[in-house]
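We both want to read discrete structure tokens more fluently, so let's practise on a single case. Would you write everything just below, so we can both look at the same thing?
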Amino acid sequence: MNELLEQARLVRYLTFYFLGTFTHHEAGDAMVAQVNDLRCLAIDLGPLKS
């Protein structure tokens, strides 16, 4: 995970794919993605920053 975060500084955006549920965060106007197992999470690095 640390290696992924280091590489994230070099790309324009990240795309997250997951199997889980969205819930409403009651403390603010936000949605929270809940994943029970990290095997249900995929992170795709976007194009490099120019």
About this structure: Residues 2-45 form one domain. Helices lie at 2-8. The mean pLDDT is 91.
